[in-house]
Arylsulfatase
Amino acid sequence: MMKSRMNERSGFGARLSVGVFCLIGLSQSALKAAEQPERESAPPNVIMLMSDDQGWGDVGFNGNDDIHTPNLDAMAAGGARLDRFYAAAPLCSPTRGSCLTGRYPFRFGILAAHTGAMRVGETTIPELLKKKDYRTGFFGKWHIGWVKPDVVSSRGFYSPPSHHGFDQYFATTSAVPTWDPTVTPEGWSKWGNEAGEPWKGGFPYVQDGEEATENLAGDDSRIIMDRVIPFIESNADQPFLATVWFHAPHEPVVAGEEYKKRYSKFGRLRQNYYGCITAMDEQIGRLRAKLRELNLEKNTLVLFCSDNGPSDGLAKKGVASAGPFRGHKHTMYEGGVLVPACVEWPGVIPAGTTSDVRCSTVDFLPTIAQACGVESAIKSSLPIDGIDLMPVLTGADPDPDRDLFFGYRRLYQGTDGKAIISGDWKLLQEAKKSGRRYLFDLSKDPYEEHDLTDEFPERASTLSRKLAEIEASCQRSRDGADYRY
């Protein structure tokens, strides 16, 4: 259905775009320009944006001509497009934890969705920024701990945003419908819900410890942004962190009629999926406009990425897209972990920057810590797996030398997916009971079509040893080496 270059492998080799990791820094010069001049020396405000299950190919700046994402495209053009940006895992919860901690999920113990929760022993971005008197807010899908203390479940435990450095929050534990999030949509019968019934009790959002009951109808991305904008306005005269994790376009994926009409030439699934993404993009545009209105955009670092590749079912139906890459959510192939990402910080990151340096969600914490001047507050007892990306984004160090590790584990189902990228080489262990390993040269084979294990056995052996060393280090962290008991 897409008439775009993302489906044309011959045109992709030069781009390998991974695009949606948008860092926009926000400053404390938060009164309008007429009222107060911008303070150049002020620490930047930070906004972290994340979509849910949005594939690499589900955005305009990666070549999709069908889905309308003008605001994300403008962010990518106004800052840096990261063409090889990876989620730390091929599914939501582990990746989300990596964004806040700068550590691999295998270190902090969230190896899959609904398994455990964020430990208070971890140091998070909001905890670091509060040392410099930042105001911190979380908005959207949390999914690294329950947000309601009286909800008892067989997996996971109560660990809301307020336990991890956020002053304010408006959050759900996990997924909600992307339109009318309190009601199970038509045609949906999974997870014990029937169409028309209340979604997870009818009030899935918790705001600062209290169940939210108002302004919960219509587009979920708009519902979230309705809480983000007042937070920014009320904290515009001091540095702040706003973490905004949208539910879109995670299933149940539903779009309002006005958004579906924009895609009337497509079938129902695409109307909902494309419309949902456009609705989210519209709210990102609303946010960017507010930053300009408050004269904050030049001292604001904003990050946007997806948490993993596209939904298994929607990708297999050809609705969601990983572009030309192999795989999707829950797989260790590029399509499962390579995600759209871009960064914007006017006056600091040159507009039109593109980078093919491989980077990851574990890089958020060190990048933000350095930009905000709190890197010295990172505990030496906590190994940090990420790197500061500002030298990459500004051209000072265009090619940092480091390896990247990815993982996803549910042993009771025989799931133990792992991968390591070292240089252009990738060793991958499938997230299946077979646990078969493959070796790929991504510089020549970005679509992972040719297993080179037999051709380069020494290379495969070397990467296997590196993988084992990283995993052993992560297990020591997970078992308590990094925390004081």
